Predict the structure.
Amino acid sequence: PYMGTSAGSNLACPTIMTTNDMPIVQPASFSALDLVPFQLNPHYLDPDPGSTHRGETRETRLREYHEMNDTTVIGLREGGMLRIEGDHMVLKGTVRARIFVKDRPARESEPGADLSELLVPAA
């Protein structure tokens, strides 16, 4: 069994490329434990339409990730988690997750959604 929170959940992914941290030194590798075939973006935030911030959004950063990488990314908002048992994965918690697949529009998944198809690496 493995359970990770925040950046610890990124360690279950193939790489640590979708953390929200800004490394101040070059890591020896971006490789992670590769326990699941997708990337996570914990603490995923939706853009605030009332904000005067002109910087990039999480969605923009994840689309930039897909310019160089093919792996699906799950944006996990605060209050959400993934429970995996065997070949079955369900979104738990009280919030939706945002699913990013390269070259496709992002989609929302509701709490309780069966996301088992994401356990199969994309072709």
